[in-house]
Amino acid sequence: MKRLILTILVVTMLLASSFMTPATELKLASWNIAWLGSHEYNKRTAEHYQKLAFYAKQLDADVIALQEVENEYWAKKVFGDEYDYYFSTKDWVQRVGVAVKKSKGLSVKATEYKALDIGKVRHGMDITLTQNGQSIHLLAVHLKSGCFTNPLDQESVNAMPNSSDKEFRRKEACEKLSKQIKPLEHWIDSQAAQNNAYIVLGDFNRRFSQDIASNLPENKGLWQALNDEGQEALWSPTTSINSDCWGGYYKDYIDHFLFSPKAKAKYIEDSFKQLVFEEKYTRDLSRNLTDHCPISVNITL
Fold it and tell me: What residues does 139 pair with on adjacent strands?
């Protein structure tokens, strides 16, 4: 009888395993393709678009957070028709978008996250990807540029000089970046409260490695403000390594993936990559390709 019961259990387990759906592996990327749109700053030629498309093929990501891309028309010049595109409606050519590869068969829920627009800055895109009952929640962002390392508390911002145009713009940038912390925290807190696996990804315009090295308090560093405890604890592969983009011309990463603990459990170890361009850095080339090299990670869903 025991042998019969054991045989039935083994057969049941084998049958159950045969019906189990294997986990889907996804390659997530983030890429700021500077001024990819109708703005006069975009002076790309057909050759430049061909080169961008060449790198897009090399990247071969399933989901791409895009920054500074105006809309689907411009995105297709680089990525073609293989993707579905979801873009913010912010009335500005530097929009945030997400490209999702059609062949992956993912269910996509896309919502514009307008709360990040605290005054003439870019919206985010809140994306939920689902397959076989498993979901990952993404917030694609492009935060205010110009305050890469300055303390973000109000006292420090108020004390910043603003006698020149350059100083004024830097102070304004820090003021706006500091105001984006609250809506970022709200999104993270909401995901954590629902016990979701979530990732915030994109161009943060912040050198988290320097926030951490300077050991800034929570009210002064963006990393410290966002990185809390429990399901609000964050991990990023970009905080302890240098960027090799354009021969290391931009040493500190400002593009990041911020993983929640549940999302980190889905991360495939050592999968973080930066796609480095073959060309040697020149100012014109970094403008006509882009000054950001794409970064990517692999996860299971």
Answer: 126, 200
What's the Cα-to-Cα distance from 32 to each of 42, 167, 202, 293, 297, rounded to whole Å? 14, 25, 8, 8, 16
- Residue 175 belongs to what H/E stretch? helix 165-193
The pLDDT of residue 20: 55
User: What 8-state DSSP symbol labels residue 118?
Assistant: S
Distance CA 79, CA 18 (A): 37
Q: What is the residue type of 237? A: P
Reported as a single tens digit per residue, the pLDDT across 235-244 is: 999 999 999 9
11 token code pair: 């057969």
Pair of tokens at residue 194: 């629902």
Query: What are the sequence ranges of the domains in the chain?
Result: 20-300
Burial of 146 per CB tally in 10 Å (0-12, 13-18, 19+): middle
* Ranges of residues in the chain whose predicted pLDDT is under 50: 11, 15-18
Q: Are 25 and 300 in contact (CB under 8 A)?
A: yes
For the chain, the straight-line distance linking the first and the last C-alpha, in angstroms and rounded, comes to: 41
Question: Quick one: pLDDT at residue 222?
Answer: 98
Q: pLDDT digits over 254-268, tens only? A: 999 999 999 999 999
SS3 assignment, position 190: helix
**pLDDT value, residue 23:** 83
Q: In 3D, which of 135, 117, 106 has the Cα closest to residue 301?
A: 135
Contacts of residue 243, defined as CB under 8 A and 6 or more positions apart, other chains included, come to 250, 251, 252, 253, 274, 293
Taking domain 20-300, whether its CATH number is 3.60.10.10 is answered by yes
For 238, phi and psi rounded to 5 degrees?
Answer: -100, 5
